[in-house]
């Protein structure tokens, strides 16, 4: 592991938690015809891949990309921009947004507003990580992996200036 990183959540703990999340989602959507998973690029791509492959219910995978203008300060201002939309209409569909991490909450709040306006049959959010101390807007989370302290984390899809995304464990960047 690179010198500036400390292990925070091991791949084994991540895997065990995703087993639990997938079981909960399987049970909650058992009566639904098809679930639409919308992964938020880029950070959620590994989480979504692992979560989706554990589901036994029928589902479809879509992606959406947003930009928070790059740096942390601008994210805190709440400025979120849509970079790439989903390919299919979600009206009347059961939708689960899959995020890597909720920091201030602005990104997810924006996405839920955007998608709700399209009239899905249901709309919920699933996030692997959340930093409760950083919350600025309250967003409802139906499925949560782990609450973490206010540290910058990388690995398992998450990056620090595009580095470390493909590390198998979640690590904290030392200040
Ligand atoms: P929010 O809009 O402040 O909730 O920010 C959410 C987005 O910021 C996430 O989807 C990530 O892309 C990014 N982000 C926030 N905290 C971290 C972190 O610790 N590591 C990597 N990306 C992060
Ligand atoms: Mg993200």
Please write the string of helix (H) and strand (E) elements: EHEHEHEEHEEEE
Q: What class do helices, strands and sheet pairing give?
A: alpha/beta
Q: How much helicity do the residues have?
A: 25-40%
Largest sheet: 6 strands, mixed
What Rg do the Cα atoms give?
16 Å
Q: How many distinct helices?
A: 4
Q: Average the pLDDT over all residues and give the rounded result.
A: 95
Q: Which regions have little confidence, pLDDT < 50, spanning 5+ residues? A: none
Give the distance, in angstroms, between the N- and C-terminal Cα atoms: 16 Å
Number of strands: 9
Strand content bin: 25-35%
Summarize the structure.
Helix content is 26%, strand content 31%.
SSE topology sketch:
Blueprint: E1 5-9, H1 11-28, E2 35-41, H2 45-54, E3 59-67, H3 72-77, E4 81-84, E5 94-102, H4 106-116, E6 122-130, E7 143-147, E8 153-154, E9 170-173
Parallel strand pairs: 2-3, 2-5, 5-6, 6-7
Antiparallel strand pairs: 1-9, 3-4, 8-9
Helix pairs in contact: 1-2
The protein binds inosinic acid and magnesium ion (MG).
Protein model, in words:
- The chain is α/β, with parallel strands linked by helices and 175 residues long.
- It has a single domain, classed as Rossmann fold, CATH 3.40.50.2020.
- The protein has four helices and nine strands.
- Helix 1 packs across helix 2.
- 31% of the residues are buried.
- Magnesium ion binds next to strand 5.
């Amino acid at each position: 592991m690179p010198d500036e990183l400390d292990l925070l959540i091991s791949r084994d703990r991540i895997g065990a938690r995703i087993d639990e999340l997938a079981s909960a989602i399987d049970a909650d959507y058992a009566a639904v015809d098809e679930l639409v998973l919308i992964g938020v690029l880029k950070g959620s791509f590994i989480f979504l891949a692992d979560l989706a492959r554990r589901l036994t219910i029928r589902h479809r995978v879509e992606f959406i990309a947003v930009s928070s203008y790059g740096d942390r300060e601008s994210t805190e201002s709440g400025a979120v921009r849509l970079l790439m939309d989903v390919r299919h209409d979600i009206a009347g569909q059961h939708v689960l947004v899959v995020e890597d991490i909720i920091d201030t909450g602005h990104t997810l709040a924006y996405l839920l507003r955007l998608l709700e306006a399209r009239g899905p049959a249901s709309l919920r959010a699933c996030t692997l990580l959340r930093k409760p101390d950083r919350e600025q807007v309250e967003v409802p989370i139906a499925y949560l992996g782990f609450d973490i302290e206010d540290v910058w984390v990388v690995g398992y899809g998450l990056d620090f200036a595009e580095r470390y995304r493909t590390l198998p464990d979640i690590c904290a960047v030392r200040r």
